[in-house]
Every structure is written in structure tokens, then in C-alpha cells.
Design brief:
4 copies of one chain form a homotetramer. By secondary structure, chain A is an alpha/beta fold. Chain A contains 8 helices and 9 strands. The first copy, chain A, has a domain of 169 residues: Class I glutamine amidotransferase (GATase) domain (Rossmann fold, 3-Layer(aba) Sandwich), CATH 3.40.50. In chain A, 22% of the residues lie in helices and 28% in strands.
Chain lengths: 258, 258, 258, 258
């Protein structure tokens, strides 16, 4: 069965900004989903902010293997309550893969999973970005050249306040003098997380073929066929069910609060 | 100057449970602070839940280099709003060290910094715990034997749903058949975090001399003399202030939302 | 195409020790290969020490995707020169997966790739080992229960002097009181490496069904379809071929030694 | 007591190349040692290739807490047998800190400790290098600005075939379009290792004040007051000395080969 993938897009600037509408007439989410669907092993659909429950009701998340997330506007960041299904990390902890794109670094879901502010420096000047593969054996780098370029991109500069990743896959060079760790992997609970830096909405980044390779590799890497609901609980193992026989000793709180 | 250290204790069971009161007549927090203060390079004071602002107003956190956290009761976990200074990760991100003890794994501050549920299995049977040093060169293991034992402890069993740590320092063997990664290091922003498993309130764990060595080592390891407030912001670097001279190109959102 | 897998076995004790011969009449390597070949996506063959070039001439390594390594006797460790193809890490660096089993921790190839002595404590008493899954979302833990037991195993105890792994997948509990990090992942160059602790030759460990699941998962995880020969070189990028145009400046060694 | 530090320099180009001799008339090793000795807590001396036993007899290594290593010429790389004390990783495993500088990435000691070829791309054009602090809370980044520049440096480009580090501290931007992970931390056995990229011999890098801050921070970070000789052995724990009482069971090899 193909990997059930949902591309979530804010879909605001595509409708309110003429430049963005021209680059992504059908929305960034659709362009990304199209790039994923060129791989028969991936079945990608889309969801957007304006849909009911932001297009991500619990029932849909339950049927999602990998979620890609693109959001930028302030109201998106502030608007999605962490108690809503779309803003909750629970499905990630249970094993849903999450690929956070570009300005999604400031989404609630990403900051919640990182445990850090995920801040950075930025500049919108359409400068050149060159992504270097620093981990050529990583599954997400499969089939890539030593580096690839995006002629126009927004700059993100370090320090990027995220935890030390499991592995760093890409590091970006920017024309204006900055560098940025632009491909980082994490696991939270049973869920694999990949942060991928490029993707400013006024540039045709998601039409780029190499970017498509990265995204398809990332979906395969993030996919976890299992669902680990048991990680949501902190069960007691009673003394009489201990694996090795033991006798209860010492003092005990009358009612253990767990 | 000595490392300004605060030991936060819930201080509930010490006052409501006769067993705990007998083991820690002055409160667990005081016993821990006393163990730290045997090191002249550490200056440890205490704070407790019942104090105003839980003993941790912003003004005090501002003067704290390393915070140790012990909490267990349900109301402690639920009671501390993340918006309160005591439940906020901001000081950790800025560089305050945090040492989370035992049942503190379920505190809001720890779960918030880990980005995971931090669940585990548990059993209160007073069984033997043996902590093995798996990383003998780590600063927190300085001066320790190959292993040390606590004759009576609560059992915590894997899986412990926390991120892969920077380094694993201790792994515990339990009489009833479980193991647990009981000493784990992390950095979030500029703040060093150490999780140390032992410390159930009905046993004399914090009177143990080897535990004292671990805690003092951990305070030294977690200490960061600098304060990184700049990590709280995501500043723009304007085109005309780029380090390397660049010319703005390409399309741009009229009002950049950051 | 199936993953081309070679199981290398020392095949000494199986022929010289009556106990081992009874447990593994066709050799441990054959038992392991049989367990792998129950998965149609894996094509496993065997190689042994007594064969020419230890069964691993360069031509065969060139056609191998994943190598499993079991060795124990002193002469195996000392006998394989690192300059021989079988003892060389080059194929691993280029992307061949390597699964090191049990006493293979002291093999030249493993120590060479770790950069550490890979020492540990040990005891041969046929005691119970219980392997806990500490990383349930890891691909190598797919389909496993929370823990599994081997009723008779050799004990390995910490400290295990290996580098901090990418991820810890299993931790073992031993009846005699020790623990051991018994499933560890690494990448060296483009090659994925998994160390798996169990497998003393006098016990039927490789007949165990759960062990078979682990080994098959590990082969899938370690497989890298690409071959990265370029990592074997340190090429010069001449000034006139710099990506961004630069002018040579400053002093220069006449003949650059690289 | 001050940290006993030895700066090992190849000291070849300083004597054979007029340019290098002018930049470092007393040798790079002396310049580096001088920079370290501005810190009263560090006591740095020097050693060079032409000295007996390369200036690093076992007796001296035994009294060394932290070793800095600068080497470039082919004969240095090839000349130091790993069996010589100066080329051996044993003191590092036991706890001696090691700071590998610039072209030392190709030294036997570094490659031996990494378990990888440590290859990279390079260009000697005196271009601008800008080192970004990506981990501002790390002890090695203490007191540093967000970035610092070296107006003329040799370029090193990715992929740098070393293992994923414990932490990445610096990433370099190069004028010619490359990036490089230029500050990486590791631990091997009980020894802390820091790789620091800059330092081509024709440029005044080790006269730079910020580089001096980095090197002093690195010495403090790498220092381990303990000596772990026990990690050099793999001892047997006999059944009758097991911590938890066990009875020997199952089959056993007559003469255990360890």
C-alpha cells in the first residue's frame, strides 16, 4: 500500500498576493503533492487552513502516515490551538511522520516537538542558496548531487535554536554571507521528523526537481508502518506481576499518585 | 562566585505522609540542598510549591544558574501553568541549567522541553536498583565507581518516551526484571538539562553519598555562565546590512510576516 | 532486487566443540542465513574463515549490500589483517551495511570503525538475558514486543567502550545484576552499522524467532542502494573552478601537500 | 593545578617555506602555546616532529591532560606509526583531551579515532572564511560573537567524512561557495576530542584573538581530571562473584577465549 501522505498548506498568500498566485496558481500544497505523487509508492493529498478543522480532523490524521506542513502567516501560528487535532503532537508521538517546511519552523506543532523557540535570523532578498549534502549516506540524500542551488530564496541564518539533531543532512550557503543547517532529522516518540529549510512562497522552489527528490526521499524515510498508542500511557506494573519474582519491601505511599 | 543553585521541592508528601516525614523531616529539598552545599563552589537554596509564585518568581529565576526540580503529586503537574515563570522554559533556553529528578519526568517544564510525553512503566515495591555508569568519561560520572546501588527504590521501566539524549550516562538494573536509562543529558537553547531517575520520597535516596556526588557533578556540568537572551528573538537582517554585499532580486511579499 | 547479504561466520567452534556442533550442526552462519532468507526481499549467502581470502575476496564484497559478522576466537581477531579485503572498512565507508554480532565487538573491522577498544565485562554462565526495546519507533524494533528473553546467554557488562551511538535500540537486563546496551546504530562514511549483542555459540540464540525478526529488520535498515566511492578521495577544487568567482589572494605554499 | 597542555606542531613548513617562516617565525606551535598561556588555568608547552620520539614519548603523554595537534606534510601523516606513543589513541581513550587542528584531519590519530577516512574538498586561494556559532550555549562557544571572520584561509568543503558528532559548534561559510562543519565534538573512551578547522600555515590564523578564545575554551572543555586505564581491559566476572547470586547453567566452551 502506498504511503498515505497529506500536504498541509496555509493557502493564504496564494490567494491574497499576486506574486505568489502567479508562482503557485493552484497553491503550494498542490504543487508539493504533485511532486510526491510522481512516486507510485506515495499517495499524497492536500489539506488547507480554511477547511473545516483546518482540513485535519482526527479521523483524517488517523489515516495519515506522513504529514507535510507549510505555514507562514502569523494567524496560522497563533491560530491553531495545540488542543486541536491539527496542532497536536499526539499522532507524531504515535508514529506519524512529520516533514516541516520552511517557515513551518515557527509552527506550534514544530516548536512543541522540539521544546525550543526555533528562532533564526532572516532576510527576504531573493539571494542564491546552495544546499550542501553533508551526510551523503543518509536515505534523504539518496540520488542527490554534492550540492544543489536555488537561485532565489529567502535567507535563514544561524543560530537556529533547535535541539542537536539525530543527523544533519544539509547545510546551506547564502550569498549574503550566512549559513544554515537546512536538513535536520529528529524522532519524538515513534514519529520521525524532518525539517527542510527552502520554500519561500514568492519563489518557485517547490517546482524544482531536486527539491522534489528530497521531499520524496523524506516521505519514505519518515514513514513508520506501526502505530504506538501504548506510548501515550504510563502504566503500573504490580508487584505480583513483576517479571522476576520480588517481595514488596520498604515504605509505600498509601495512594500512589503515579 | 559560587554556582547559584535552587532546589525546588513539591514539599507535599513530607508534610502529609508520616513515612516521608520520617525520612525527610526537613523536606527532600533541604536534604538535597545540604548535599550540594558540601561543595564550596555551589551555593544552594530551596523553593517549594506552597510559597508565593511557587517560590520561583521571575526575579529569583533571573538570579538562578541551576535549578533542581522534584515534583510528584498530580496537582503539581497540573497546577503550574506554563505561563507562570516557574513553569516556563524561557530561562532554560537562555542558559539556566535544569536537573530534573525522579517523578519530575512528568512535570510540565520537562515535557515541554523534551517535546514528548515522557511516559514510562512503574512499580512501587522497594526493590533494589543498581545504576551502571555507561559513560565513565562524562563529567557527571566523575569520581563514581563502576556501579552503585540503592537498596530500596521505585521501579521505572522502559520505554521512556524521551528524545535520544546527547549522551546516556547511567542505566539502571531493577530486581524485578526491568532496565531504565536513568541518567540522560540534553541541551535546549543554551540550557543544559540532566534527567536523574532515583528519588522516590519514601526511601532515603537523597541521603545516599554517591547520589550526592552525582548531583554535585550535575550542577557543575549544567552551569552556563552566560545568558543568551538573543535566542528569544527572530530578527530580520536587512538587505543593506548583509555581511556580503548583495542586491535584492525576485518577488517579495509586500509586508513580510516574518 | 533482493538485498545481497553475506553472513560471515568464523566456523571454528562448530567443528571443534561438541556442544556447539550439536546446537549448530550446519554452522551458526547457515542458521543465520536461513533466518534471513525467510524474507523474500533478502538474499543471504554465507562465508567462513577457512575459505580462500576468508570467503570475502574483494570481488564478493563488491557484490555485497549488507555483511553480518560473527567471530570469537583469538586467531580470528588477530588473523584478519586490516589490509585484507575482509578486514578493511573501505566497503563500509562506501555504503555496505555491517551488522556486528556478539563477540564480533572485538573484531578488527568493528574496532577500526568505532575508533575505540570496544571492551566490556563478561561471564559465561548461561544466565537469563532480557532485551528491552528502548526505542520502539526505530525500524530495527518493528514488530517486536516490549521485551524478549533469551533463557541462556553469556553476560556482557558495561562499560562498553564504544562511541555514543546514533541511537540506542535495545538494553539488556542480566540475571547476575548487569545491564548492557545491546542494540546500537552508527554510520561511518555512507555505511550503516548495527551492533547486536546476543549470540554466544553454546546457546541456541540464532534459532530464536524474535532474534530472527531483529536480524531481518537490521538488514533492511542497514541497506544502502548507493555506492559512494567519491568519499575515498580528498580532491582539490581549483580557484578557477570555484562555484562563486573568487580571486586568489595571500601567500601560498609552492607545492601544496594536500 | 593548571591544565597540562602540549601543542604538537609538525614544524616543517615554518623552517622550509619563507612565507610560513615570516608569519610564524617561532613556529605555529609556539604561537598557539602562547595564546593558551594567557589563561592562568592552562600550562601549555610544545613538542615537534623533529624531536626524539616526535617530542611525545610515553612519559610525556602520561603527564599530558590535553594535546593539540597540527600536522600537514605527507611524511607526517605517513611517518607516525600508530604503534608509537605519539600516534596511539590509548591516552585519548584513557581520558587525555585531543584538539585536532586544520590539516590534522588527515593525521593517523584522528582517522583512527573517527573510524572514517576524514576526507574533504580543499582549495588554497586565501579566500574569506566566516565561522558561524550554531551552538551558542556550548562551552567552546563561550564569549564568542555570533560569527567571526578570517580574511584569508584555505577552503575545506563538504562532505567531510567523519561520524555525526556529539555536537556541531561551528559551521564555516567560504567566499568561493562552500560550507564546512568547522567545529565538531566527540568522545572516544574517556577522551574528549574537538576538531577545529582553521589554521592554514601561510595565513596568520593563530594570531587571531577570537581563535585564541576558541582554543582556550576547547582546552577547558576537553580536560578530564580522571585517568581511565580500566577501559583498556575486558575482564571476566566469574560466576561466584556475580553481584546477584546465580547458578551456572547450560553448555560452556571448555576454554573460554574471551
Amino acid at each position: 500500500m502506498a504511503i498515505r501522505t497529506v500536504v498541509w498548506g496555509e493557502n493564504i498568500h496564494e490567494r491574497t498576493n499576486a506574486v505568489v498566485a502567479q508562482v503557485y496558481p493552484r497553491g503550494m500544497h498542490t504543487t508539493i503533492a504533485d511532486a510526491l505523487n510522481t512516486d507510485a509508492a506515495i499517495s499524497a493529498s492536500t489539506a488547507t487552513l480554511e477547511q473545516e478543522e483546518h482540513g485535519l480532523p482526527q479521523s483524517r490524521l488517523d489515516e495519515t502516515d506522513v504529514l507535510l506542513w507549510w505555514g507562514h502567516a502569523r494567524r496560522t501560528r497563533r491560530g491553531l490551538p495545540t488542543r486541536s487535532s491539527s496542532g497536536s503532537p499526539r499522532r507524531v508521538w504515535q508514529g506519524m511522520g512529520l516533514i516541516v517546511l520552511h517557515s513551518g519552523h515557527h509552527s506550534k506543532i514544530f516548536k512543541r516537538l522540539m521544546g525550543t523557540p526555533a528562532n533564526l535570523h532572516w532576510r527576504e532578498a531573493g539571494e542564491r542558496e546552495r544546499l550542501w549534502v553533508v551526510n551523503p549516506g543518509h536515505p534523504i540524500a539518496k540520488g542527490l548531487p554534492r550540492y544543489f542551488e536555488l537561485e532565489n530564496e529567502e535567507m535563514y541564518g544561524e543560530p537556529f535554536s533547535v535541539p542537536e539533531p539525530l543527523e544533519t543532512v544539509f547545510v546551506s550557503w547564502f550569498q549574503g554571507g550566512e549559513i544554515f543547517r537546512s536538513g535536520l532529522t529528529y524522532r519524538r516518540g515513534a514519529g520521525n521528523i524532518f525539517y527542510f529549510r527552502p520554500g519561500h512562497e514568492t519563489y518557485p522552489t517547490y517546482h524544482d526537481k531536486t527539491v522534489g527528490v528530497v521531499l520524496r526521499n523524506a516521505v519514505h524515510w519518515a514513514f513508520n508502518a506501526e502505530r504506538h498508542e501504548e506510548l501515550m500511557k504510563a502504566p503500573n506494573t504490580p508487584v505480583d506481576k513483576a517479571i522476576e519474582k520480588i517481595v514488596e519491601r520498604g515504605a509505600k505511599l498509601a495512594k500512589h499518585p503515579g
